[in-house]
Amino acid sequence: MALFAVFQTSFLLALLSLRAYQSEVLVEPLPLTPESLNVSIDSAHQYLNLQWSVHSLAYYQELKMLFQIQISRMKTSNVIWVGNYSTVVKRDPVLHWSWKSELPLECATHFVRMRSRVDDAKIPEPRFWSNWSSWKEADAQKSLGRDPLFLFPKDKLVEEGSNVTICYMSRNQQDNISCYLEGQQIHGEQLDSNVSAFKLNKVSFIRKTGTNIFCKVDQKDVIKGIVLFVSKVLEEPKDFSCETQDFKTLTCTWDPGTDTSLPKRSSQSYTLFESFSGKKILCEHKNSCNWQVDSDSQEMYNFTLVAENALGNRSVSVLFSLTHRVHPKTPYNLFLKNVSGTKATVTWKVHPIGNYSTLLCQLDLLGEGNVIQQHNVSIKENGEYLLSELEPDTEYMARVRCADANHFWKWSGSISQKFITAEAGWQGSLCFCLEGPF
């Protein structure tokens, strides 16, 4: 019994020691300084791309962490941007983050450093920032060559109304340099003895071939130019609507608004996404798209139309029941028969629309351009109606259009036929029809 008591006491002491050790692990500040920081330059898109690692995740498979990033320009003491990036860090990961520069990166050397702290509920307060990493330099000027004058950015594409920063870099501090926008001199801010920057606010669309900007060295035959491509603003599609004529195909249409296309640049594209089925298609046209109706008789549709170009996207959505969006095709084979002086029989046919084939057709009788009779007729495939109270030897027009009888959406197109009633006393049944269409 005494031996059991000793064993029990030893076990409890060991358990308390383990919990105390775990408690120390939880509250001890973790030395998670970002390591192996690397900075690369994406000149085409004016991004600084950062890559780094965090080692020392000894006790956890993953931790939520916060990284504070500093970016300096020209010298490390000139900090131009400070921001935080939050992410979940797994054991021995490689992390990525990018920063977009308003000033073309070729016109100034940039420096980057970061520090981190744990931002995870598994680690109780207080939580401490790590030490800063060492500064990393990003210098795009090293690859520019030895030309006496450079102007950036090259062939930049922006949306009308944007703010754009351009800059020049001169190899000779003594040069007097003048810059021009569409022939008008512009004035900027000198960043150092070799670099000046110009901020263009709310740039306007001038022409599809771009806006011309150039700089020249006074009294020297040195000139550099760039083209700034300004596109029209991509608009949200207007009047977005979908309908069917046969329950086999849904036709969606919209007004795309202003065309944003530029020479040698891709125009806006349109993608149609249906959320219930999870399907999407790339539309072939800028103002319409055909969607094949599945045989599984899906009733509800939730479409999102996305307009997209190189600078962004706009979207619009519509939710509807398929049976509420029936737009029948135009009736056909409209004829007049048994035409007498006071009566005439009108016949016509309609295109079938699957199982939902009951149509409400509107028959108008026109005389001298005015509607003098109007009749509603429910039909399946063939329509027929007897017109009466007509005047002998008179020209009329019969006109027919149809809509879904269960859920009115839109009238179909109209078909019409002119005819002349028989003279008074005529007992025949001929049709004095006039050739159309009308």
From TrEMBL:
GO CC annotations, alphabetized: external side of plasma membrane
Membrane topology term: Single-pass type I membrane protein
Main localization category: membrane
Signal sequence interval, chain numbering: 1-27
Segments forming domain Fibronectin type-III: 330-424
A Pfam family the protein falls into: LIFR_D4
A single MF term (Gene Ontology): cytokine receptor activity
Keywords on record: Disulfide bond, Glycoprotein, Membrane, Receptor, Signal, Transmembrane, Transmembrane helix
Keyword Hydrolase applies: no
InterPro entries in the record: FN3_dom (IPR003961), FN3_sf (IPR036116), Ig-like_fold (IPR013783), LIF-R-like_Ig-like (IPR048497), LIFR_D2 (IPR040817)
Subcellular location: Membrane
Protein name listed in UniProt: Oncostatin-M-specific receptor subunit beta isoform X5
